[in-house]
Amino acid sequence: MPDAAVRLKGLLEQLLGVPLPVRIRAWDGSRSGPPGAPTLVVRNRRAVRRLLFKPGELGLARAWVAGDLDIEGDLYAALDLLAGLVWERGEDTRSLAQALRDPEVRAAVRGLLRLGGLPLPPAPPPEEVRRVRGHLHTRRTDRRAISHHYDVGNDFYEIVLGPSMVYSCAYWSAPPPDGTLEAAQRDKLDLVCRKLDLRPGRRLLDVGCGWGSMAIHAAREYGVSVVGVTLSQEQAAYARKRVADEGLTDKVEIRVQDYRDVEDGPYDAVSSIGMAEHVGAERYLEYADVLFGLLKPGGRLLNHQIGRRPQRDESSYRVDEFIDSYVFPDGELQPIGVTVTQLERAGFEVRDVESIREHYALTLRRWVERLEADWARAVKLTGPGRARVWRLYMAACALAFERNRIGVNQVLAIRTPDSGDSGMPLRSRTWG
């Protein structure tokens, strides 16, 4: 009688010390677990070996990307249930070395080894980043990291992002179905332009310009001259074509350039939308210093950035293994308080901080819907492993924003002149 699911469930519960909140369906067709719960499909013994040789998040991620694991039922519900086992067990969770001192845990590991078959570690999926020794966030390593994430193919991003081609949090006036992704992205770009007080004749630097959406919107709707910089060759080529199609080549220049190499300031305004997450904690003050130096006195910076919750012991912070290995190599999140402090250390006066956390959850769920609706073409364009990376990444992030594990903030900062005249109205916000 097939019993792999029963054995696997029992061994995992023994190892983890808590009941599994999901059902399991194993490679032999057996099932076990709470009725009605989402089902974790273990397609082969290799999935067990992946979990044994890399316990925790990275082992699960490798099994998912390789197709050794899958989920039947509500993906969000399954991830929410599994988060308590993998991501949220708290600071008191025992290390593997500590756990193995327990005879019952050692017995469970031996049982999993027998169940997993040949005791050799499977090779990581090809989608996993191959690490190169050296310092993080040099110009060379940043180019490699950006290429890994953004040079997946513009056709793939068109599937996920839709016509707006904006890869950052939208700004919703109403949740779907009353609001659309395209309208919400247009409203976000317009919000940034208004916060920067863009006007005809002014110059805007768009750092991490993506596929050119912000640059095009600012030039077309506000009459400014824009320089957009990106490290992605594919993004730049796509953005330049869009600029030409809009008849804005006299207003918009797209460069493949590191922001640290921009030397044609000063600018009246700088927008940095979803780019600062790539900078890294050690380089953040340098980032703030460079942008401060590129602005005229009185110029404004709009820094739109994902932030994490602060920890009691910040030295224990670790970059998310799945995202670091498959999505954003070398990306780092920091609390909003750290971001504000670093900007002010560089000389900026921070005038406004707006949290739009719930907006990103709505945006990510729309991106997942678009990917799932055109799944076959996405797989054809990027391969099944890459498509699975994106589905898991976006769904897990949507939950993280909904549960307040991470947030996203727009910080408006000014290079206030010596006179102290910020140029800001006495009341800059309207609360509804």
UniProtKB/TrEMBL annotation:
Polyketide synthase-like methyltransferase domain ranges (all copies): 156-391
Pfam families on file: CMAS
One GO term of the biological process aspect: methylation
Membership in a protein family: Belongs to the CFA/CMAS family.
Keyword Methyltransferase recorded: yes
Keyword tags: Lipid metabolism, Methyltransferase, S-adenosyl-L-methionine, Transferase
Active site: 397
Entry protein name: Class I SAM-dependent methyltransferase
Organism (species): Streptomyces muensis
GO molecular function, one term: methyltransferase activity
